[in-house]
Structures are given as C-alpha cells and as structure tokens.
Write a structure and sequence with these properties.
Shape: globular
Structural class: alpha+beta
Radius of gyration: 21 Å
CATH architecture: 3-Layer(aba) Sandwich
Strand order of the largest sheet: 1-5-4-2-3
Distance between the termini: 43 Å
Largest sheet: 5 strands, mixed
Number of helices: 9
Number of domains: 1
Length: 211
C-alpha cells in the first residue's frame, strides 16, 4: 500500500510538471467561467481589449504597447476594443457612447487617441455630450452626424452588449485583454505590460493551434 501511494504521488508530480512545462505562463492569466461567446470568424482568434478613457493605465498601456501591437497584429487575430461598462449607473457612459459613435462614423482612428490625450494630457473633462461633440467636430465630423448617432439604436445596442460582456468577462478593472472569450489577462497577473504582451501572444498561438 505504501509503495502504491508513493507511486501515485510521483505520478501526480510528473503530471503537474508536464502541465507547467507545456504552459510556461501558467498563473499569468485567468480562465473565464463560463467562457463567453465570440464574434470572430471560425478561423480567427478573438482578442478584446476592455478600457476606460478616464483610466491613466489604459492610456499608458495603449501608447507604450498596444497601439503598435494593433498595427502589426497576427493575421489570425480578430481584434476589437470595448469600453468596460458597469451597469446603467456607470458615470463614464457618455465616453462609452462617444467610442461607439466614432465606430459608427468610421472615425475611431481619428478620435481614439485624441480623446485619451484631451483627458490625460490636457486635463479636460470630456464626459459629457456637448464637449465630446466639439472634439468630434474638431477632427472633421459634422455636428449633426455626431448628434444623430449619439442616441441611435445601433449605439445603444452596442452599449447594452458592452454592459453584458463586461459582466460576463468578470472584470473588476482595466485595462484587461480577453482571448477567445476564455482567458483574462491583466498586467498585475502577468507582472507588467511587457510580460502581458508575451502572454497574449502565447494564448493566441495556443487557441489557433486548437482550431
């Protein structure tokens, strides 16, 4: 019986060591339970970044790491931004709506970074419709186009979906990266943004090889 127990213990250690060897980033990301549905094509790995425009860490992460990654992301990645929205009383709702207005008007590349900069570099309060409209106009959007989309059915549908997904992803802060609806990455778990990007690349390869 003692020999059997000892052999069982050795086998468990070997299984654990094998698992660690196969996953060198174990403990640097979290599993999402249950896994969430994705919108990616069948041959793509979905990567979602959740952020707040008022979050200085999100701005720093975007400028130092993620902006360059987006421009050079792997061909097998389906990427999307998503403002994290914690229910109907989230005070950042105007900023989230601005994000989706920019998407609807296909000007996100003109608005995303300037909105971050207005808040964090210029120290401006951008969390209201009138001020946001002025920013959009400054970057070439007609005031009436902004106003028409701000309370549109499409924008409100996206806001509601962001609320649902924020809850489903089980996040408590930002920036957070979600891979294929299964894995949750934060800089705290990964020990910094540089390591976070390494974990992201690992999980993309892991999910792509499983397809």
């Amino acid at each position: 019986m003692k020999i059997y127990t000892k052999l069982t213990f050795i086998c468990l250690i070997l299984i654990f060591q094998t698992a660690v060897a196969e996953d060198g980033y174990a403990g640097k990301y979290e599993l999402i339970t249950p896994a969430q549905k994705t919108t990616a094509p069948a041959d793509k790995v979905e990567v979602v970044e959740l952020f707040w425009y008022t979050c200085p860490h999100c701005y720093r992460f975007d400028e130092s790491h993620f902006k360059n990654w987006r421009k050079n992301k792997p061909a097998n990645v389906h990427f999307t931004h998503m403002p994290a929205i914690f229910g109907d009383n989230d005070k950042r709702l105007p900023l989230a709506k601005a994000f989706y207005v920019a998407k609807a008007l296909q000007v996100l590349d003109k608005i995303h970074t300037p909105l971050f900069k207005a808040i964090h570099d210029d120290k401006r309060d951008m969390n209201n419709k009138a001020t946001l409209q002025k920013l959009f106009v400054k970057h070439g959007v007609k005031a009436e186009d902004f106003a028409k989309n701000y309370d549109s059915f499409w924008v409100n549908t996206q806001i509601n979906r962001a609320k649902t997904m924020t809850k489903g992803y089980g996040i408590g802060g930002v920036p957070v990266i979600i891979v294929n609806g299964k894995y949750r990455l934060t800089s705290e778990l990964a020990n910094g943004y540089t390591e976070m990007m390494k974990v992201l690349e690992y999980l993309i390869k892991k999910e792509h090889s499983a397809k």
